[in-house]
Amino acid sequence: MPYLILMCGIFGVFNAEHAEKYAFYGIYALQHRGQESVGIAVSDFEEIRLVKKSGLVLEAIKKEDLEAIKGYSAIAHVRYSTAGDPGGINSQPLIRDTSLGRVGVVHNGNLVNYLPLKLELEEEGIKLYHTSDTELFLALLDLGEYVPSHIRLHPADREVLPKVFYALSRVKGAYSLLFLFKDRLVAVRDPMGFRPLLMGRLKDTVLFASESCAFDILQAELWREVKPGEVVVIDRQGIRSYFPFTSDRKAMCIFELVYFSKPESFVFGNWVYRARKRMGELLAYEDQVEADIVVPVPDSGLVPALGYAQAKGLPLELGLIRNHYVGRSFIEPTQELRDIKVLMKLNANRAVLEGKRVVVIDDSLVRGTTSKKIVAMLKRAGAKEVHMRIASPPVVGPCYFGIDTPTREELIANRMSLEDIRRFIGADSLRYLSLESLRASVESPQDYCDACFSNLYPLEVEGTALRIR
Ligand code: SF4
Fold first, then answer.
1. What is the pLDDT at residue 2?
2. Which atom of ligand 1 is found nearest the CA of 458?
3. Where in the chain is the domain with CATH 3.40.50.2020?
4. What is the C-alpha separation between 190 and 103, in angstroms, rounded?
5. For ligand 1, is residue 401 a contact (CB within 6 Å)?
6. CATH match of 274-443 with 3.40.50.11010
7. Distance 152 CA to ligand 1 centre (A)
8. What is the pLDDT of residue 5?
9. Would the CB of 451 count as within 6 Å of ligand 1?
10. What mean pLDDT comes out for the span 354-374?
């Protein structure tokens, strides 16, 4: 991971003996989407029980934790918590006692009307216990009922769904959600489909996950995506699907394909691997540089580097080797010690670099500080020339839809020209993938959000002046 980006992953399971274990392994497979905290809520159809811990799934959740929450349906979450909340009160699942009984929720995304809505609820005297937008989904369940006129509810859904639809009618923004009720699970994707959510199955067990790699670990079958705007209910009577709110404009996050999702995953109707490799190929077609070898920045630069190398007919060499045993590093007081952070993660491989003209490929460039260290590392290991290639366009806009990117001012592409960035990172040349080629690497690019690359936002954000596409 070349820079700090915050995100999360969600997983759900219904109708499984030991749903808590399915949740454990499913959320473990999504660990790359958040490493600071993990939580699992389980229902045994009578009661909902919860475990939440700071840290990585395998280290944080113990056997006895799972034994204490045994049940038949579950939701789980991994997240990267913010500085003021180190694995604390906002880690998910969130649980609330409502008129529908105890309800749990996990959320991937971000509401763009959180602050005004929170203020409104507080003015109405609604008690909020957390400082995250996710809590609003639970708080709103008790504040009203709504069924759009085109919806015919199944009798089994007449108590719960009007409240869920009411909650959804009040929020704006990005949300893939899983609600856990004691007798059912409800999956929701926002009408613009910002964040992925997929369904899998394993005999009579139904699974939900941010990415399909969570089904693979359970040897389950990828069934289908939860569609933008869809609400899927599953209980012991079966599965039912509704589309209470729709939007003509879709806004699937293209950064999922550039970086977030694992390469073997299927999201937004794409195999991530294919889209990412295509980005590398298109980067190669746009590039005239003369080089001897192509070197990926592991792991996220690997797939586009493969596409680039094959398109150019150049050898792909492992000129940077990743250390897989890196944990936390300390906040160091001097620059030399701070550089150790990158050196702990990556080492240059002199055996393939010495005397070579190197094209080094990374998935994205946000602040430029990591790229600078990588270029220096390659040169120290004997590379004759280092040509930095980025398999996505310059990041020019912050994200308001669930990815905590740096501020507009911190983004290097907003502060420096291409030549100044090249000089800053110390490369012999620098090139990004064009926005047109990024869009060409996916089917139906008009159905994606690419605002952090284009500065054209799919949705208005309360209190922020943005250009809307
Ligand atoms: S702004 Fe960027 S990171 Fe955020 S949803 Fe859009 S494409 Fe994804």
1. 37
2. 6
3. 274-443
4. 20
5. yes
6. no
7. 34
8. 45
9. yes
10. 94
